[in-house]
Structures are given as C-alpha cells and as structure tokens.
Amino acid sequence: MLAVLCTASTVFAGGPAVGFVAAPDGVPLCVAEGGNPQGPPLVFIHGYSQTYAVFTRQFESDLARDFRLLALDMRGHGCSGKPWAESAYAGSRPWADDIATLLKAKQLSRPVLVGWSYGGYIIADYVRKFGDNGLGGLVFLGGVTKIGTEQSAAFL
Predict the structure, then answer these.
(1) Measured between alpha carbons, how far is residue 85 from residues 76, 129, 147, 150, 151 in Å?
(2) 26 HSE (CA, 13 A, CB side)
(3) SS3 letters for 23-65?
(4) Model confidence, pTM
(5) pLDDT by residue (tens digit) across 41-74?
(6) How far apart are CA 119 and CA 74, in angstroms?
C-alpha cells in the first residue's frame, strides 16, 4: 500500500498536485507541489496542528509563475502518516529526516526552506543535523526556533 501511496499524485480542483514520499522509517509524507517546475524551489513547512493547506494562497499567487512550490505535511499532520509509536516523534531526528527525504526525493537544488510558526523549529532540526550546505536560504515567518526558554515563552 505504501508503495502505491508514494507513487500516487493527485491534483485537486486547480490546486497543487498532492503525492507522497516515504520517510526513512516508512511513514508516508504528503507533499503538495505546484508552480513553475523549472523555477527555484520554495519548500513550505507548516506549524503545529496545521497542514500544507495553510499555504494555499502561496500556490495561487504570483509566486507560482516564477518558483517551484512544495509544501510538506509533517508526520502526524494532514494527509501524512500518523504513527502510533512515541519514538516516531521523539527528538529532532525524525523531523530533520522528513525534510531531508523531501529534498532528496524531489531532487531539489538549493531550495529555500520557509517555516511558519513551529515549522521554524523543524527547519532548525534539519539545519542542526544536516547543516545549511546545499540550501538556497531560510525564511522564518513567526518561526519558533527555541523551546523551553524565556524568549520562546514570550513568543507564545
């Protein structure tokens, strides 16, 4: 079933194509893709309890003319897999690996990672594990990058 999901792609009423890639631990990750396939890639990472759908306006904007747009439903969110095991969410590794999986599966060259809210923390997980080599840039939109500090508590 996972192999079918990971090769499937669907386009919903004028929206982005939606397909799946498999994380290293087998979790199917839902990926929305649209815009200019030859454009520089922008990868949108949503916040906690959100989905790729929060970036609908970006897919419908002028960005789509010039950029390849991708948005990932993080594990446990939206149409991505929702593993029951606590270990599937523990620490920064699964989150960093999910981003790395997308970048590799879609063969993205110098993508700009755009994180909204908790998406900023997930991007920080990726950079801590893999570094920023190969990235075109990072954008934090109201992004959380620290948890458990006075600065991060003031943000909430």
Answers:
(1) 11, 22, 23, 30, 31
(2) 5
(3) CCCCCEEEEEEEECCCCCEEEEECCCCCCHHHHHHHHCCCHHH
(4) 0.85
(5) 999 999 888 999 999 999 999 999 999 999 999 9
(6) 9
